[in-house]
Amino acid sequence: MKKHKLHISTLILLVLLIVCFLYRTEIVTFVMSTATEYATVNKPDNNNYTNDYTFDFVKTTDNFHVKNAQDIKDVIFTFLNSGNEEFTFYCSKEYKNCMKDLKSISENQILLSVINNMVSPFNSYQKLYVTTNTYGKVIIQIDKLYTKEDITNINKKMDEIKSEIIKDNMSLEEKIKAFHDYLINHSAYDEVRAAKIENNDKTEYQYNSHKATGPLLEGMALCSGYSDAMKIFLDQMHIKNYKISNDNHIWNFVYLNDKWLHLDLTWDDPVTTDKSNVLLHKFFLIDTNTLLKLDTTNHNFNPEYYPETK
Fold this sequence. Notes:
Elements (H helix, E strand, L loop, with lengths): L1 H21 L1 H14 L27 E2 L2 H14 L3 E6 L6 H9 L2 H9 L7 E8 L4 E8 L3 H18 L6 H14 L2 E2 L1 H8 L14 H6 L1 E2 L1 H14 L4 E5 L4 E7 L2 E5 L20 E3 L1 H7 L16
Parallel strand pairs: 1-2, 5-6
Antiparallel strand pairs: 2-4, 3-4, 7-8, 8-9, 9-10
């Protein structure tokens, strides 16, 4: 009797093994997708440069099992804003177009740069990588634009500048103007690098004019250097802001006195034929209608990405 039971148990085990072998792909897929669906994802820890701003285009989220394209954009923003260099999230089981949407978003450099514009320059990336697997796991990794040494040097310089130009009795607008004027008076537009970029000349650049280190520490700037320096200052003043960009230009957008206003240091620091220093306030805290009346060529932008401009 015992021998008969042993034969039945062996037969059942053999059948199970055969079934597992024949349907191994389906079983692995089920187990992995189920594990993915219920994987716990903690919100990334924030660093000292995380902002608590919310915007119309993206917002901070704690939903890391995404269900649509907007969820993906919100997760990318939350990750970048946190200051981390790697983060993992998952596609929800019912989100059938997740991988397709991920590919579309990760290949849309304009869209990614818009999200990058909305976080502290110190948390922004110069390169972003997205890897996925067939079970809905997504890993984002970045190479940051600013090194720890950059950040230390910039913060030290910013403290020196603020102690020199900022007074307690100033309004926020006066503080912004003081920094705007200081930066323009102590830096110049990097025409050499701009020309090299236009001509696709990849020879070595003399200045880090594309970053805040350029205008703050080297006295040379491109529009990205001006706008990064201003954004760092605005963040330190706890003034809600982000940067607006197109293919050729980038400037600041500031929420002040219940209004969203444009601020462009590059165009307030024009290049002159005689190389003389000029300080303007033509593009200092102006509304969208005024901006577009002044210039629609270099200040064109997609309002879909920047709803606050409407």
